[in-house]
Write a structure and sequence with these properties.
Helix content: 40-55%
Largest sheet: 4 strands, parallel
Structural class: alpha/beta
Number of domains: 2
Number of strands: 4
Distance between the termini: 34 Å
CATH architecture of the largest domain: 3-Layer(aba) Sandwich
Oligomer: single chain
Length: 190
């Protein structure tokens, strides 16, 4: 699958320590982290995030580790997929990461929503988003599709779409996954 996307394999290791060491020496553009034998996925991603410049990281979570999705996104992981997911899902996550976008597979949106919540208005950094845009963002974090957001906020579908366009522009995101990742990184969701 990696070769089909034009990705050359530099190294493979079952050790999180070794993955970080090899990345520090080889400076790969992309590191895909599965389940290392000696560290958790989150600890391995944290080590990789300390490298300068940090590589693009895609984390592949085993079942039962869904609770770390928000942490991985906050660490800067460009993609998060499920080990039990389809090869197509992983390919989409890797393709997005290689384009510089953030992508969390749909099966993990619920876990992401459970790990983040909107900050109270008085704690919002720099008032980047309007209060309505923050409400739409909170609905996104809960994994709601556009129609559900429209119903929940008692607005039209067109209004939701226009809020999303403004949110994407303000967060410099190209899709909802990237917007959620940037919102977590900026502290708009916690």
């Amino acid at each position: 699958m990696l070769h089909a996307q034009g990705v050359d394999f530099v190294a493979h290791s079952p050790s999180g320590h070794e993955i970080a060491s090899v990345a520090a020496i080889e400076r790969p553009d992309l590191v895909v982290v599965g389940q290392p034998a000696d560290l958790s996925v989150a600890d391995t991603v944290r080590r990789l995030s300390r490298l300068r410049p940090p590589p693009t990281v895609v984390a592949v979570l085993p079942t039962g580790q869904e609770h770390v999705v928000g942490y991985l996104v906050a660490l800067g992981a460009r993609g998060v997929a499920l080990r039990a997911g389809s090869p197509e899902d992983l390919a989409a996550v890797i393709a997005s990461a290689l384009k510089g976008e953030q992508h969390v597979v749909a099966g993990l949106h619920g876990a992401l929503a459970g790990s983040v919540r909107p900050r109270p208005l008085e704690e919002q950094p720099n008032e980047l988003l309007s209060s309505r845009e923050r409400e739409v963002l909170a609905c996104l974090a809960q994994g709601m599709p556009n129609r559900e957001i429209a119903t929940a906020l008692s607005v039209t579908l067109a209004t939701v779409k226009s809020h999303l366009v403004r949110i994407y522009a303000k967060l410099e995101a190209s899709n909802r996954n990237e917007a959620l990742g940037r919102a977590v990184a900026l502290g708009l969701l916690r």
